[in-house]
Amino acid sequence: MKRITLTICLISVLYFSGNSQTMDSAAMMKAWQAFMTPGDMQKMLAKSDGVWDAEVTTWMDPSKPPQKSKSTCTNKMVLNGLYQESVHKGTMMGMPFEGHGTVGYDNAKKVFVSSWIDNMGSGIMYAEGNWDNASKSVIMKGKSTDPLTGKDTGVKEVIKFFDDNTQIMEMYGTGPDGKEMKWMEIKFTRKK
User: Fold this and answer.
1) Distance between CA atoms of 71 and 78, rounded to whole angstroms?
2) What pTM does this model have?
3) Running DSSP on this structure, what letter comes out for residue 151?
């Protein structure tokens, strides 16, 4: 039953996207199966499942000292192991903080994808990028909402994998001078 439903959905999507004329149903099914099957990149993300302590450093104004806070992060692979869902809880700027993120690997586009929402804003951040083997990092670029202008602003997210128990996430955006600056750094240490 699942296979029939999946086939009908796939054929419908491809028909309406105009690809049905160039692909036979066996090729469509093979492409869809590859698209929905976790691979090496998803397995790499799954190694980060679990609970992590987080040391958060934020730079609101480059001329002032950074603010520091602590939080916890719980990661778990969801949706057949295609995405890692992260729930962050702690404090930021003296207020309770909760954020939810997803990181996955798009098997068709061959890029990592990331989304983020939290209780400090009503916008959704989206980024995509590639694995950099030299630095053992995922480097993604995307957009989030600038609350002052209501317009999209560019962001860069770097996730560095030091070992199975240590990671650092860096977030960059546009500084007051119009140049890229580091907004945030989070050091994650796996809870024992």
Assistant:
1) 22
2) 0.82
3) S
